[in-house]
Amino acid sequence: MFISDINLQYFRNYETLSAKLGSGVNVFYGDNGQGKTNILESVFFCAIGKSFRFSKDSDLVKSGKNEFKIELQLKDDITNEITVTFRNGQNSSSGAGEKAVRVNGLYLRRLGHLMGNLLSVIFSPEDLEIVNEGPSVRRKLLDIVISQIYPAHYFDLQQYNKILAQKNVLLRDIDPGNSGLIALLDVYNEQLAEAGSKISARRVLFSYELELFAAEKNAEISSGEKLSFQYYSNYFTIPEKANKNLLDNSELSKKIEEFSTVINKEFTEILNSRKNREIERSHSLYGPQNDDLLITLNDMELRRFGSQGQKRTAVLSIKLAETQLLYKLTGRRPVLLLDDVFSELDETRCALLLKNTEGFQTLLTTANLSELPREISSAAKIFFVESGSIKLI
Ligand SMILES: Nc1ncnc2c1ncn2[C@@H]1O[C@H](COP(=O)(O)OP(=O)(O)OP(=O)(O)O)[C@@H](O)[C@H]1O
Ligand SMILES: [Mg+2]
Q1: Which of 81, 116, 154, 157 is the most exposed, fewest CB within 10 Å of its CB?
Q2: Cα–Cα distance between 196 and 202 in angstroms, integer?
Q3: Residues 6+ apart with CB under 8 A from 293
Q4: Residue nearest atom 7 in ligand 1 by C-alpha distance
Q5: Residue pair 90/66 in contact by the 8 Å Cβ criterion
């Protein structure tokens, strides 16, 4: 797939933007603060229905305006058009408003149905958070890519989080003698086991697949250092990494199905046997909300023992693995968004990144054209970005 046209209205610092993109590399260059990342943000918004920068939807509306619109035309794919519009609500400081998404002209009643229409991977300097920060960053990494492949994952997460919030409210002041409320807790637990076991099953098995690719890339850049992942959970037994080779989509789906049945049993048991403990603590203690992915290099935790360079290499390998897996499991090529990444990479890593982006439409930003490898700048479509307007050069 590739994006042939992008049109923005009142998005971030753009009054309007209208550009025809090439199917290969598209470079957006310009000084700091001119609107380069904003373009990538608008594209990724069409992939996952929100900003990748922790911004509220209302932050994306151009200041002084009341709504924004993003429109993408795609080629060589089942998706040929995505439009997103957002209009501020009455109280715009809350970030809430009306979001409407259309794919191929059809209005989507639920945002989750957007998942998988535009496949995309974003590489940014903040990716280092994957190794440096807490578990939620790694869960988010897995959840975004899994949701693009299996949109059901998005709906399961939504459902799980909704019930978890209700359960926590209930646990806050539940009286263990109140059989009606205990029965309600049992209902919540049953629903949590159902959605939660699918969430963790996908994350575990997907992380094994991701590891196979990422370890290979990492070894290639670092001349043989061993990158690996250990999935961590406090409520089910982690299975052995059985396969040495990547699974195809139907094998993986089948394994996920089987494994989620196993987890469901364990989850149900633990929620029942530790019910009193959760009541005492007034809080949910078990479930995928606590899962983590431990990243190790040469069997030592990367976060604690890795050098800056080793961390960068690992993160780049993980992102490249994400790209390859999306492609392998869907048969469709994701659009790559590279936000200011070349300035951080040395020659070996630049070369590997370049090799791996071949054949994928790439949108990249840089403040300095001269730091781009020549192979890129000579074949790319280059746009100059200046205070919310772009010019093809
Ligand atoms: N809602 C908004 N309305 C108007 N302008 C906005 C809005 N949100 C962000 N901006 C402006 O967008 C600009 C930042 O854009 P962006 O992050 O794309 O910059 P950039 O070109 O990627 O810069 P850098 O090279 O520093 O990463 C800033 O000038 C900011 O003030
Ligand atoms: Mg930027």
Answers
A1: 81
A2: 10
A3: 135, 138, 139, 142, 203, 207, 229, 230, 231, 232
A4: 12
A5: no
Phi-psi region of 18 (alpha: psi -120 to 50; beta: other; left: phi over 0): beta
Residue pair 193/204 in contact (Cβ under 8 Å)? The answer is no
- At 336, the pLDDT band (50, 70, 90 cuts) reads very high
The structure tokens listed for 281 are 């603590």
CA of 157 to the centre of ligand 2 (A): 30
Rounded mean pLDDT of 58-69? 97
In tens, the pLDDT along 257-271 reads 999 999 999 999 999
Tell me if residue 11 falls in helix, strand or coil. strand
Domains, the chain, with CATH or none: 1-119+336-393 (3.40.50.300), 125-331 (1.20.1050.90)
> For residue 240, how many C-alpha atoms fall within 13 Å in the half-sphere facing its CB?
3
Query: Cα separation of 295 and 305, whole Å?
Result: 11
Ligand 1 residue neighbourhood (C-beta within 6 Å)? 12-13, 30, 32-38, 59, 61-63, 340, 365, 367
Residue with CA nearest ligand 1 atom 9: 12
pLDDT digits (tens, 9 = 90+) for 17-34: 999 999 999 999 999 999
- Helices assigned H by DSSP within 63-150: 129-132, 135-149
Q: Which residue's alpha carbon is nearest to atom 27 within ligand 1? A: 32
The closest ligand to the CA of 30 turns out to be 1
